[in-house]
Amino acid sequence: MRRGQGYTLRVTAVPAVHCRLLALCQPLDGGQGVPAAPAQRKARREYENRVSALVPTEP
């Protein structure tokens, strides 16, 4: 998860916490009329990809 230019915040937690963080930061991704820079969208997309790799899929 990015926090400002050139600074990456690392959060060590169970996948459920990461999923909750993604849900909370989704409005910051340019939704609901809030402008987002391309770098913000990319950072969130990459974080979402890493989290989705951690979460096991249901058979």
Major sheet: size, sense and barrel closure? none
Gap from first CA to last CA: 29 Å
Strand content: under 5%
| Helix run count | 2
What Rg is obtained from the alpha carbons, in whole angstroms?
Answer: 12 Å
Helix content: 40-55%
Q: Helix-strand pattern, N to C?
A: HH
Quote the average pLDDT: 75
The count of DSSP E runs of length 2 or more, i.e. the number of strands, is 0
Structural class: mainly alpha
Shape annotation: globular
Identify the notable features of this structure and list them briefly.
mainly alpha; 59 residues; single chain; globular; 0% strand
Concise account of the structure shown:
By secondary structure, the protein is mainly α. Helices cover 47% and strands 0% of the residues. It has helices at residues 15-25, 38-54.
